[in-house]
Design brief:
The protein is of the alpha/beta class. Helix content is 34%, strand content 17%. It has one domain.
């Protein structure tokens, strides 16, 4: 069984806490992207990143001096967003790093796919960015089926904890016999289940930590997840979509 999650826009460098285990498997294509971005003007880079001047200048500097082989941070520590904060990899216990290294895959517009202990550098490149590289119309086209092939293992079971932007990299290439389960974290409003960005990111991170803690090997194990007020809703769930509904709105940050 494999688990997929999205990266975070913000990144940090930590070359001391944990040693990197390897380089990302699709690094040759990352090099193509790096050369292409370096060939853009600053204004073209800023448009690609769709950000303000401060962030654009920071990332223009990053790409201008980027070395894909030195001063690397393990990916699970490099991404600095809500999902990763609630995953809390810095306090993983014995065996939990091994679990995520075997089961978790982080999807990336720049690296394609990385294992938690792969060494990465700070970058900015969202999967939906309009990057027409090497005759490809966008990054989905550029990466093609490569991400799917690297993510899927012999079990043919994939638990989707990624955003729709990144899940699209996988869904297009699913094959007969694949079991693809999307986890929905929402709350009931006017009879409907609504996902709210911040809370969904928090729950996705906590779900990874929960799965690592119990060393889940079958997707059915995650139905017992009950952190931050979320409970598995059997009536709303299907074989391909697990729905977790937040019951206690006062429990936003802690485990229930």
């Amino acid at each position: 069984m494999r688990i997929i999650i999205s990266p975070a826009k913000q990144m940090r460098t930590d070359t001391d806490s944990i040693a990197c285990a390897a380089l990302p498997v699709l690094l040759n294509k990352t090099g193509i992207l790096l050369d292409w971005i370096r060939g853009l003007t600053y204004e073209q880079q800023k448009a690609l990143w769709n950000c303000n001047d401060k962030i654009a200048r920071q990332n223009a500097g990053r790409f201008a001096h980027m070395d894909l082989y030195r001063d690397l941070t393990p990916a699970i520590l490099a991404y600095d967003g809500i999902q990763y904060t609630y995953m809390a990899p810095a306090v993983f216990e014995d065996g939990e790093y091994d679990y995520v290294q075997d089961h978790l895959r982080i999807l990336s517009g720049f690296y394609g796919v990385v294992k938690p202990m792969d060494g990465v550098v700070p970058y900015r490149l969202e999967m939906q960015a309009r990057a027409a590289v090497g005759g490809c119309k966008n990054l989905y086209d550029f990466w093609g089926a490569d991400i799917y092939r690297e993510v899927m293992d012999e079990s043919r079971i994939l638990v989707d904890l990624a955003s729709k932007e990144y899940a699209k990299c996988i869904e297009k290439y699913l094959q007969p016999g694949d079991r693809y389960i999307t986890c929905v974290f929402g709350e009931q409003e006017n009879g409907k289940i609504v996902q709210k960005g911040v809370y969904a990111k928090m729950a996705r991170g906590e779900m990874v930590r929960y799965m690592a803690g119990i060393h889940a090997e079958e997707p059915e194990r995650i139905r017992d997840f009950n952190w931050s007020g979320y409970r598995f809703d059997e009536d709303r769930s299907t074989e391909t979509e697990y729905v977790f509904v937040r019951q206690d709105r006062s429990s936003k940050n802690g485990r229930a």
